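Researcher: We plan to redesign the surface later, but first we want a full-length starting point. Tokens attached.
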């Protein structure tokens, strides 16, 4: 269940969600909406992030966290990184890129100290970006990035944390390596 969108009447109903069997909630975050400049976490999603910790901790839900450098067919990186990636001056698997993402995870962890995060999706429907960037090297770099940031994420939220990328069914069955 995604409590990220406020209900029309302004009243969240976690009790009703529990009655319907909901045990987890999604917290979708976009990198460019958190970090406005290198190391500056004051983007428009920051107030939401700070407010949701208390609300969700009181509700007792486990959290499926999504932190997205790619959403569908868009890079959702801070402007300086998006420009550097598009110009080829930095790649997803470059140590400075990985270190910066790890600092983002540190910030998020600090803002959500009371929430049991059980999964971390890095990218939302990221396979749709294949239409924009079909270069196998880009995707190899992205995969290496996932492998490199996963241990840091697990050091923050526990070894049981599942780290993955969210993709579409179309990407699964029609991707470049599908037979």
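Model: Full-length starting sequence:
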């Amino acid at each position: 269940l995604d409590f990220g969108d406020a209900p029309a009447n302004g009243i969240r109903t976690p009790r009703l969600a529990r009655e319907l069997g909901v045990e987890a909630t999604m917290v979708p975050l976009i990198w460019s909406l958190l970090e406005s400049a290198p190391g500056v976490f004051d983007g428009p999603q920051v107030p939401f992030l700070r407010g949701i910790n208390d609300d969700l901790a009181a509700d007792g839900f486990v959290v499926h966290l999504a932190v997205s450098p790619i959403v569908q067919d868009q890079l959702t990186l801070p402007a300086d990184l998006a420009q550097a990636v598009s110009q080829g001056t930095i790649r997803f698997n470059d140590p400075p890129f990985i270190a910066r993402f790890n600092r983002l995870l540190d910030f998020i962890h600090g803002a959500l100290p009371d929430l049991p995060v059980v999964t971390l999706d890095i990218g939302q429907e990221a396979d749709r970006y294949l239409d924009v960037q079909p270069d196998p090297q880009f995707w190899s770099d992205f995969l290496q990035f996932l492998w490199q940031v996963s241990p840091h994420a697990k050091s923050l939220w526990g070894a049981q944390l599942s780290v993955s990328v969210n993709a579409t069914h179309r990407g699964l069955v029609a991707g470049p390596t599908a037979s």
